[in-house]
Amino acid sequence: xxxxxxxxxxxxxxLFALNGIATNTSLVMMGYFMFFTxxxxxxxxxxxxxxxxxxxxxxxxxDPPIGILIDRTNTKFGKVRPYILLGCLIISGTMVAxxxxxxxxxxxxxxxxxxxxxxxxxxxxxxxxxxTRASQAILTRDPKQRPLFAVxxxxxxxxxxxxxxxILMTWMAPRYEGQLLNPKLWSDMSLVVVGMMxxxxxxxxxxxxxxxxxxxxxxxxxxxxxxxxxxxxxxRKNRALQMLVVAASTDKLAFQLMNGVMxxxxxxxxxxxxxxxxxxxxxxxxxxxxxxSGIFLxxxxxxxxxxxxxxxxxxxxxxxMFVMGAKPGNYMAFLVIFVLxxxxxxxxxxxxxxxxxxxxDYEEYRSGKFIPGxxxxxxxxxxxxxxxxxxxxxGFALAFAGVANGQIPTDTYISDKFYWTIMFxxxxxxxxxxxxxxxxxxxxxxxTEKMEEIQVELKKRKFGSLVK
Length: 468
Description:
Layout: H1 2-5, H2 10-30, H3 33-39, H4 45-72, H5 81-98, H6 107-134, H7 136-139, H8 147-172, H9 183-208, H10 228-237, H11 239-269, H12 275-301, H13 304-324, H14 331-350, H15 352-367, H16 372-387, H17 389-400, H18 416-441, H19 448-463
Helix pairs in contact: 2-5, 2-6, 2-8, 2-9, 3-4, 4-6, 4-16, 4-17, 5-6, 5-9, 6-16, 8-12, 8-14, 11-15, 11-16, 11-17, 11-18, 12-13, 12-14, 13-14, 13-18, 15-16, 15-19, 17-18
């Protein structure tokens, strides 16, 4: 039985973690969508923000049917690998199309063009991203091994967060006339991202191959056909997933908003846009060390306690950052606290996927059905609907600050109103999100003791008398 549980190697878990990094690489690139459409294409920040919000909500709507589709799929190439490949190809094509939007199009034409390709991008992202969460529960049932996915995922994400801005802001942008305002920069960067995604996706398919087999997906061969009724029951009765969705989606809204306005913090508050790439490359190491420490604590104490520690730590750091402010005269102290905040947030972000796997086990324990695709996509559906508000908030914030139309000069102080608007988005909204997370975790039932009880019961159902 132990052999059955630990048959996947740690290096294979590491490779599969690259699937999430592939989609995150595209997500980071698309994080510049509003900047690109406003400053390169000349579109309105408010309108683009509302479009992006609608697309994010559309992203959530596409999750449930694709989750059901994955749970129903069974091919000789596996259940998830076909969707990883398909999603990667769709994402790659649409990103290149968006960041090469023809300058000859009218303003209306640019809105239509970018919206259509954004919608197609969302479908590809859902295909590939859903595979990351749907596969968590079948990678391993070993409670000591499961958090290792978060270790690798967190490490890769930390490297990505350092390398991406370093490539874009520090290495590439200075080589182009006009730097961030040069369309060729964004065209070339989209190709770099596509290359990274393709490599990560192929490695992920290699990693999941040993577990992407029919016997790992269905506990009961006589189970009824999976459908939307199962999804309704999950939403209604899975208390663990309900609370995790509330905690994670509010934090995700905050993270998306912080990511969307970060370029303005460096460029128009600290007044040094090139510092963003350098800072990210330095930040990666403490974030990596602290977030990994949190994951190893999760192996000993369960997922819930490290999640709360990270949430409280991030909240206190954000409060200190807001009080201190981001100004040229004190930017070093501000960035030091920002590193601490990122370390704490890294703990919570990195253990989400294993927590979703725990929720899938809880659902099998509760209902007798192993439906990781549905559990994962119920999570992402609500998560994306709530976090979709980030782009709308950003758009209206820029409008409130009086800079919703036209280019925003780089490395220039705009106004006090603009400064405090950005700081509110960067610090206060995330604090509110963390408060919701702390409240939700009070009602999250999957303690270490409860997960041990669940795993024993699931082993009995599968192995019967072999379990002692």
